From TrEMBL:
<keyword id="KW-0030">Aminoacyl-tRNA synthetase</keyword>
<dbReference type="GO" id="GO:0005524">
    <property type="term" value="F:ATP binding"/>
</dbReference>
<dbReference type="InterPro" id="IPR004188">
    <property type="entry name" value="Phe-tRNA_ligase_II_N"/>
</dbReference>
<dbReference type="GO" id="GO:0005737">
    <property type="term" value="C:cytoplasm"/>
</dbReference>
<dbReference type="GO" id="GO:0006432">
    <property type="term" value="P:phenylalanyl-tRNA aminoacylation"/>
</dbReference>
<keyword id="KW-0547">Nucleotide-binding</keyword>
<protein>
    <recommendedName>
        <fullName>Phenylalanine--tRNA ligase alpha subunit</fullName>
        <ecNumber>6.1.1.20</ecNumber>
    </recommendedName>
</protein>
<dbReference type="InterPro" id="IPR002319">
    <property type="entry name" value="Phenylalanyl-tRNA_Synthase"/>
</dbReference>
<dbReference type="GO" id="GO:0004826">
    <property type="term" value="F:phenylalanine-tRNA ligase activity"/>
</dbReference>
<keyword id="KW-0648">Protein biosynthesis</keyword>
<dbReference type="InterPro" id="IPR022911">
    <property type="entry name" value="Phe_tRNA_ligase_alpha1_bac"/>
</dbReference>
<feature type="binding site">
    <location>
        <position position="256"/>
    </location>
    <ligand>
        <name>Mg(2+)</name>
    </ligand>
</feature>
<comment type="similarity">
    <text>Belongs to the class-II aminoacyl-tRNA synthetase family. Phe-tRNA synthetase alpha subunit type 1 subfamily.</text>
</comment>
<dbReference type="GO" id="GO:0000287">
    <property type="term" value="F:magnesium ion binding"/>
</dbReference>
<keyword id="KW-0067">ATP-binding</keyword>
<feature type="domain" description="Aminoacyl-transfer RNA synthetases class-II family profile">
    <location>
        <begin position="110"/>
        <end position="320"/>
    </location>
</feature>
<dbReference type="InterPro" id="IPR006195">
    <property type="entry name" value="aa-tRNA-synth_II"/>
</dbReference>
Length: 346
């Protein structure tokens, strides 16, 4: 009786074939499951006579092995055929999708360009803290106490009265000049890039933080002619030969004499446009001969040494290069804006 059943099931197993994972699972449950046929036949086997057991035992074991082997073999083929159907949607001849390469921020590009130009003249790069004390941001730079010159820069104050005066976010990178001169003796020839903060209402034309690059050159016999030639070279390198420069007298507490430098408008080449307000000139930086008081404040002999300094806003320089009408774009991290500078990544 049991023998007949097994013969029948054996035929069924031998004939069974499938590529469907579902059908195979049905097969497993039917034969190998905890309530499956194998379990049943082994239960029935317990009741057969001892003579029958001898022959039937072997048959039963072979039957069980057959079912397991069948299941295993089909399991491998259905697994690989599943992979095949998934892969069949993959057309290996299609061009690859590639991956997006990020772009450098336009301010980083401009900063790097400025640094590279001054590197050729032997300027190194120095940095200082963004949280500054009154001494480094103002007093050492010859801003008299209670003098309206301090109002030129709307300061974000952090703490009243530290060892070196009120603590504030630096309003300019000129503070790094002081730190550099305090730390050693001339010659100094360095560029000092960094972020600065001013208490301004945010608009297309003003922001509460922006970036500057400060320049300092102190040695024996440094003259205003050196300042002019250095900045002239810088402008030719950055905006191309033929770009004109002019110096207008100005006032900064830390330089004497002081000047502001204009260049011929990079957009209209001097013909007059919106960028230069139809004047043909745009201002790009402030500069001057380091005031002897500043040298002395930093422990440098002003009779022996002289120097020049300059400071420019990186946003301004970038604007003249890329014509970015709204300052806020620089800090919004809008990928659509940033992506445009992709070509300049190398
Ligand atoms: N610190 C000035 C500012 O933020 C810029 C400046 C002017 C820097 C003249 C200088 C300089 O080094 O000599 O407006």
């Amino acid at each position: 009786m049991l023998q007949d059943q097994i013969t029948q099931y054996t035929a069924e197993i031998n004939a069974f074939d499938t590529t469907s994972a579902d059908e195979l699972e049905q097969f497993r449950i039917r034969f190998l499951g905890t309530k499956g046929i194998i379990k049943d036949v082994f239960d029935e086997f317990k009741a057969v006579s001892p003579e029958e057991k001898r022959t039937l035992g072997k048959v039963l074991n072979e039957f069980k092995q057959l079912a397991e082997a069948k299941y295993q073999a089909l399991n491998e083929t259905t697994a690989s055929s599943k992979l095949k159907t998934e892969n069949s949607q993959l057309d290996m001849t299609l061009p690859g999708e590639g991956f997006e390469v990020g772009a450098r921020h336009p301010l980083a590009l401009v900063r790097r360009e400025i640094i590279e130009i001054f590197n050729k003249l032997g300027f190194s790069v120095a940095e200082g803290p963004e949280i500054e004390d009154d001494w480094h941001n103002f007093s050492a730079l010859n801003f008299p106490e209670e003098h309206p010159a301090r109002d030129m820069q709307d300061t974000f104050f952090i703490k009243k009265g530290g060892e070196k005066g009120d603590i504030a976010l630096r309003t300019h990178t000129s503070s790094v000049q002081v730190r550099m001169m305090e730390a050693g003796q001339p010659p100094f020839r360095a560029l000092m890039p960094g972020r600065v903060y001013r208490n301004e209402a945010i608009s297309a034309r003003a922001h509460c933080f922006f970036h500057q690059v400060e320049g300092l050159y102190v040695d024996e016999n440094v003259s205003f002619a050196d300042l002019k030639q250095t900045l002239f070279y810088f402008v030719q390198e950055l905006y191309g030969e033929g770009t004109k420069v002019r110096f207008r007298p100005s006032y900064f507490p830390f330089t004497e004499p002081s000047a502001e430098m204009d260049i011929s408008c990079t957009i209209c080449k001097g013909d007059g446009c919106q960028m230069c307000k139809h004047s043909g000139w745009v201002e790009i930086l402030g500069c001057g001969m380091v005031d002897p008081n500043v040298l002395e404040n930093c422990g440098i002999d002003s009779k022996k040494y002289s120097g020049f300094a300059f400071g420019m806003g990186i946003e301004r320089i970038a604007n003249l290069k890329y014509v970015i009408k709204d300052l806020r774009l620089f800090s919004e991290n809008d990928v659509r804006f940033l992506k445009q500078y992709k070509s300049a990544i190398i």
